[in-house]
Design brief:
Number of strands: 10
Oligomer: single chain
Strand order of the largest sheet: 3-4-8-5-7-6
Radius of gyration: 34 Å
Strand content: 15-25%
Distance between the termini: 27 Å
Structural class: alpha+beta
Shape: elongated
Number of helices: 14
Largest sheet: 6 strands, mixed, barrel
Order of helices and strands: HHEEHEEHHEHEEEHEHEHHHHHH
Length: about 400
């Protein structure tokens, strides 16, 4: 019976004080909406940035030649350390932490030609593992370099999607031939479009990739530009780096703790920083929403105090007819929770509607895909309960503590 009475009284209060009630519920509405939207967009932006970072590869490190900075067993510092493809083979054989590894041979401003179309682009020679490490995913009907291409030193090439567009436009590129520095190559694959906001030479979308063995016969070079390493899942990159320094330190006789002997870009450190940053960023945004929600709760408390003043006579009559303090207390708290719940539900539904409409505006390339998180929804529900309870408890206690005679006299 009490819930029905409370609902009827709630509806009557809304009708009597339309503007005040609407403004109060709007505070709860906007606070709920803010929490859901800020967390959803924060997560969308964070995921988009992480995806772009992973465009160059996930859990990888790039090693370049370096110069020793420490003396070692009578050898002076300042020695040049220039690993070769044989060293990469040695690391692959001896390492227990390396999952994938590939040398990388680079040449800038190589002439790539198809008919009258000509362009100066980067040419990379690599192993088959390179494609998986660097997220070079082939388009449907194409492939990356394989071991047979390496063994037979085939003149085959895998090209970036924008390079394919430059050379062929809307035409099919797979199976066609292009000339690289005057030598014919068959296109075996075109890279699937990906997001990439970091690189160490050129974006993969405009690069041509050929087998490392073919690159060696073309340029007769022994020295590789760098090599790329990916750790096994059960190991972290720090362990892999230490192991590589130990293996190459023994081969080239430098101190394994000499971090200048090889230059390293450990991309996993950047991932950890971004992950921590965007997690903190999300909760900062949620904190702003929570502050707005608490402000709305203060508004609810104010309107309930006004309701108390307007209903003092009613409370006195009820108590004179035998209503207990608990009845009055619960009725006021339920009314407060109803105001809070209505504003919260409307705010959540509005936020969910906005989030569902975002992809249709074509902004996902910039802000990612916002997602309404169920955990955040549960957090909002809990906060609404707390806000509603504290917003109603104080006016409810005032109402319950009124004496019948006092209430009738005040009116």
């Amino acid at each position: 019976m009490l819930p029905l009475v409370t609902l009827r009284q709630f509806w009557n209060d809304l009708r009597r004080q339309k503007l005040r009630s609407a403004l109060t519920m709007f505070g709860i509405f906007w606070g709920t909406c803010s929490i859901v939207l800020l967390f959803a967009f924060g997560k969308g932006i964070g995921d988009a940035q992480m995806k772009s970072q992973k465009g160059m590869g996930e859990n990888i490190a790039i090693f370049w030649p370096g110069i020793t900075a420490k003396e070692f067993k009578g050898l002076p510092k300042g020695r040049s350390i220039q690993p070769t493809e044989d060293d990469v083979i040695l690391i692959r054989e001896k390492s227990v932490t390396v999952g994938r590894i590939s040398p990388e041979f680079r040449r800038w401003n190589q002439t790539i030609k198809r008919g009258r179309n000509s362009s100066l682009r980067m040419l990379v020679g690599c192993w088959p593992e390179f494609g998986e490490m660097r997220n070079l995913i082939p388009q449907a009907g194409s492939r990356f370099i394989n071991q047979n291409d390496m063994d037979l030193k085939r003149r085959v090439v895998f090209i970036g999607n924008l390079l394919a567009q430059d050379m062929f436009g809307s035409e099919q590129a797979i199976g066609e031939q292009i000339e690289i520095n005057g030598m014919p190559f068959t296109i075996i694959g075109v890279m699937k479009e990906k997001k990439q906001n970091s690189s160490y030479g050129s974006r993969d979308s405009r690069v041509a990739f050929i087998p490392a063995s073919t690159f060696g016969t073309m340029y007769s070079t022994r020295w590789m530009s760098n090599f790329v390493v990916q750790s096994k899942k059960e190991f972290n990159m720090l362990q892999t780096r230490r192991e590589i320094y130990e293996i190459l330190g023994a081969r080239y006789r430098f101190d394994p703790t000499d971090r200048e002997a090889l230059a390293v870009w450990d991309t996993t450190r950047g991932f950890e920083f971004l992950k921590t940053f965007f997690t903190a960023f999300q909760w900062f945004l949620v904190g702003i929403g929570v502050s707005t929600l608490i402000t709305g709760g203060i508004g609810v408390s104010n309107i309930m105090n006004v309701v108390l003043e307007e209903r003092t006579k009613e409370i006195g009559i009820k108590m004179a007819l035998g209503a207990r303090k608990g009845y009055i207390l619960i009725q006021f708290i339920l009314e407060t929770l109803l105001i809070t719940a209505v504003g919260g539900v409307l705010g959540f539904l509005f936020a969910w509607l906005l989030v569902s409409l975002v992809p249709s505006f074509g902004l996902t390339d910039f802000i990612g895909v916002p997602q309404v998180n169920i955990n955040v929804g549960m957090l909002v529900v809990c906060l609404l309960g707390v806000v509603g309870f504290f917003a109603g408890i104080f006016p409810a206690r005032r109402a319950a503590n009124l004496q019948p005679v006092q209430a009738l006299k005040l009116f």
